[in-house]
């Protein structure tokens, strides 16, 4: 999980950090969802905060899961069945506990590994601009732009990592299936062919007397 | 500690962290227990603790400790791969009362280098930028480690794909050979049989 929260300078820094940090939070968790199971997560959100829920299925079956996001009054804000990946942004219309659930209840025997990233609020600025006496120096603005660029690099890296994990999981599945099915087919082929010959032979050897009478 | 989820009393809940080597992972948790009489979650339950177990990709246990109802744990990965962090309460109530559950608040941070706030307050303007730069450099190192790990995984992916490709080819050849040789054997065997039975 990545928590993006940064320190601030100056005597008012702490206060700003406290106010801003309360508003911004990002949780990302990768967990395994067993078959026929449902896992719910809850978060207390302040009214007016812009939140984003993003999820992706990494391994298992058809790589899909049901997702459902409900507000504090039980109203369904987002509901999708059998989705592989999605991103949903919403603004909290009221204070309260928001709940989102991932369900694998439609699957009978495949476990799914699900990743989700729930971002609450905007990230706090690196260097707060509220209490500045002078404009930002070049160094500071360079720092800020590098920080923003790094945040998006880390974000893209996470997405890439997930896609690669999903691709690799599919490739490994394919490899196992090819191996097992090929061995199975070869065995079935042998068994059926040899079986056919012996079956035919047995048909003729039982009715021996009848066949010779017909032939002659 | 904003995000939370529910768990059974003796249930083990695990999360997976796929991380490169030499990465610091810090976790914060808080657990509350359900009180059936008050129909609410208690602020603190005396004696309630959590077993935190961290397993490295090769199966060895990196961390296994019992913490109180609220705690912080951390570990540094020595191998790159999937580390599994498991939480299980030390509740000894075998007779699980209907409706008893735990609320687990969780916050896990991977690879973040945390700024020492008091050090920033004490230093002057120049050093503040210094500290920011150190933080940025730490972030870049994290990105580099992730990229190296990604390269390893992509190689494994490529090997798997190539193995699948050669498996398909090899097994197709083997199956064709089996088919041809068994077909020949079938005809020969039947012909010999019919000749011996004086039917042909």
TrEMBL record, chain A:
Domain of life: Eukaryota
GO CC entries: COPI-coated vesicle membrane; endoplasmic reticulum membrane; endoplasmic reticulum-Golgi intermediate compartment membrane; ER to Golgi transport vesicle membrane; Golgi apparatus
GO biological process: protein transport
UniProt subcellular location: Cytoplasmic vesicle, COPI-coated vesicle membrane; Cytoplasmic vesicle, COPII-coated vesicle membrane; Endoplasmic reticulum membrane; Endoplasmic reticulum-Golgi intermediate compartment membrane
Gene3D superfamilies from the UniProt entry: GOLD domain (2.60.120.680)
Regions crossing the membrane: 178-200
InterPro entries xref list: Emp24-like (IPR015720), GOLD_dom (IPR009038), GOLD_dom_sf (IPR036598)
Function: Potential role in vesicular protein trafficking, mainly in the early secretory pathway. Appears to play a role in the biosynthesis of secreted cargo including processing and post-translational modifications.
Protein name: Transmembrane emp24 domain-containing protein 7
Organism encoding this protein: Regulus satrapa (Golden-crowned kinglet)
TrEMBL record, chain B:
Domain of life: Eukaryota
Pfam families: EMP24_GP25L
Keyword set includes Membrane: yes
PROSITE patterns: GOLD
Transmembrane segments: 168-187
Any one of the GO CC terms: endoplasmic reticulum membrane
Domain annotation GOLD: ranges: 12-110
Membrane topology: Single-pass type I membrane protein
Major place of residence: endoplasmic reticulum
Localization in the cell: Endoplasmic reticulum membrane; Membrane
Family: Belongs to the EMP24/GP25L family.
UniProt-recorded name of the protein: TMD11 protein
Organism of provenance: Regulus satrapa
């Amino acid at each position: 999980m990545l928590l993006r929260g940064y320190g601030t300078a100056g005597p008012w820094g702490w206060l700003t950090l406290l106010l801003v940090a309360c508003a911004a939070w990002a949780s990302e968790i990768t967990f395994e969802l067993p078959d026929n199971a449902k896992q719910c997560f809850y978060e207390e959100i302040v009214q007016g905060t812009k939140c984003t829920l993003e999820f992706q299925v990494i391994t298992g079956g058809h790589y899909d899961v049901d997702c459902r996001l409900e507000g504090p009054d039980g109203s369904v804000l987002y509901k999708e069945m059998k989705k592989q990946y999605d991103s949903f942004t919403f603004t909290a219309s009221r204070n309260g506990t928001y709940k989102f659930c991932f369900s694998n209840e439609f699957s009978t025997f495949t476990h799914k590994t699900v990743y989700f990233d729930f971002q609450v609020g905007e990230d706090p600025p690196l260097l707060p601009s509220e209490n500045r006496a002078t404009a930002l120096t070049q160094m500071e603005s360079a720092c800020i732009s590098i920080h923003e660029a790094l945040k998006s690099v880390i974000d893209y890296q996470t997405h890439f990592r997930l896609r690669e994990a999903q691709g690799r999981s599919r490739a490994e599945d394919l490899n196992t299936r090819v191996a097992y099915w090929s061995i199975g087919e070869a065995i079935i082929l042998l068994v059926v062919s040899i079986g056919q010959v012996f079956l035919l032979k047995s048909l003729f050897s039982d009715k021996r007397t009848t066949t010779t009478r017909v032939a002659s | 500690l904003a995000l939370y989820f529910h768990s059974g009393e003796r249930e083990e809940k695990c999360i997976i962290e796929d991380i490169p080597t030499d990465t610091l992972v810090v976790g914060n948790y808080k657990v509350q227990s359900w009180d059936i009489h008050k129909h609410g979650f208690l602020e603190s339950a005396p004696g309630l603790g959590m077993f935190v177990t961290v397993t490295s990709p090769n199966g060895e246990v990196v961390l296994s400790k019992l913490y109180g109802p609220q705690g912080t744990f951390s570990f540094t990965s020595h191998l790159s791969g999937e580390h599994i962090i498991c939480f299980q309460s030390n509740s000894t109530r075998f007779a699980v009362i209907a409706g008893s559950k735990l609320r687990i608040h969780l916050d896990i941070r991977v690879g973040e280098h945390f700024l020492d706030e008091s050090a920033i307050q004490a230093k002057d303007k120049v050093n503040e930028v210094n500290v920011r730069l150190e933080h940025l450099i730490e972030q870049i190192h994290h990105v580099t480690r992730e990229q190296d790990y990604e390269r390893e995984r992509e190689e494994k992916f490529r090997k798997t794909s190539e193995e699948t490709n050669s498996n398909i080819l090899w097994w197709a050849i083997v199956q064709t050979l089996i088919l041809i040789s068994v077909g020949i054997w079938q005809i020969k065997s039947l012909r010999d049989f019919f000749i011996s039975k004086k039917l042909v």
